[in-house]
Amino acid sequence: MVASHSTPHADPVPPLAWRSWCAHQPIPADEARYLLLELLRLFPAALATPLYLSGHQQRRLASWVARRRRGEPLQYITGRAHFFGEVIRVGPGCLVPRPETELVVEHALATLRSPADCAGGDAAKRPNVPLASRSRRGVGRESVGLWRSVREEPNASPDRPLRRATGDDATKNVARLLAHDSVHGSARLSRSGQGPTGSQGDEAGRPAPVDLRRRATERDPAGGGALRLLDLATGSGCIALAIARQRPDVRIVAVDQSAAALAWARLNLHATAVEIRRGDLFAPVAGERFDCICCNPPYVEEGAILPSDVRGYEPAAALFAGADGLAALRRVVAEAPAHLLPGGWLVMEIGAGQGRAVTRLARPLFATVAIHRDYSGHERIFVGRQPP
Ligand SMILES: C[S@@+](CC[C@H](N)C(=O)[O-])C[C@H]1O[C@@H](n2cnc3c(N)ncnc32)[C@H](O)[C@@H]1O
């Protein structure tokens, strides 16, 4: 028997010299690398091994590069975006999920954990909820690195030095709010902002601990005791999907007014129990209340200068919200309290620099309000809580 290594090589196709290939494309090299990895469905680590492309793959890659050169968003070209460790199918009609929006998921997951877990105590005993965004690994990391955040003010400078946030920060932030509740319970404002609510609590005026699960059972008998979450303005369904994967025990309703966006949401959510409804903001959930409302509404000012691949391709209804960018945020803040259970949370993405305006709108309507920054140091997440 002749040893196989002595036979002539049957495959004359050389491996792709990917560095040189990327450097010679008519698009930025990191974008070319992204498309290459997406085409082959590989993690970046695979670049350390020889890559072989079939003729069909080479032609496909060339057409992808040509589309990108014409300005199409990378994720529309590949049909996939990476969000919180999930692959989200995207295309015309829905917004491409942004990495900043993973913070909405992280904060929402933190609110869905029992306050006893959130409000301090022995951290080692807390359930190991995977708050750190898994898309920061592997190919997802690539999309994060490539993505130009369109909603940032071009020259925005954070007003404090950057600290690399960890995934656990969301939990800690919510824990801080909850701890604040415990310490300042007697000073908690009523919804009208006129004075303390203080209807329940101990002799020292501290509020009774809130058991979200028990509360849901008591206040939402139709829900079978499950916690309820609303993903308002769901778009591709990325937030609902990420939360459904982490917390399959939570009943989730996803709402959007765009039929085109909901077609993508249906594709992304088909394997979940998420209920999809179409309509204007809270209209499809009239009379219903939730433990948590997540929302990434449009918040860009009309007339803002956006990259051409955003303005030219992504739906205007997903981006723009009036002259000051606050039109949708205003409505959500005003209408959310009527749809939150006592002690329920509104977790909402906002634009850089909108924190003060949103806080002013929300303060009279929520027991606690907080603005959290994203990994670039920009105001990004509003968290408001109803009085328990
Ligand atoms: C910024 S996108 C967010 C999409 C997705 N949640 C995400 O984070 O990628 C905003 C979404 O709000 C939807 N939208 C805008 N105005 C709305 C309204 N009045 N009622 C319901 N949905 C609305 C748009 O169709 C779009 O899908």
Describe the protein's architecture and organization:
- This protein is α/β, with parallel strands linked by helices and 388 residues long.
- It folds into 2 domains: 14-70, no CATH class; 97-148 and 164-385, Vaccinia Virus protein VP39 (Rossmann fold, 3-Layer(aba) Sandwich).
- The chain contains 15 helices and 9 strands.
- Strands 5-4-3-6-7-9-8 form a 7-stranded mixed sheet, sandwiched between helices. Strands 1-2 form a two-stranded antiparallel sheet.
- Strand 4 (251-256), helix 11 (259-269) and strand 5 (275-278) form a beta-alpha-beta unit.
- The N and C termini lie far apart (80 Å).
- Bound molecules: S-adenosylmethionine (SAM).
- S-adenosylmethionine is lined by residues 95, 97, 101, 233-236, 238-239, 256-258, 261, 280-281, 296-298, 317-318, 328.
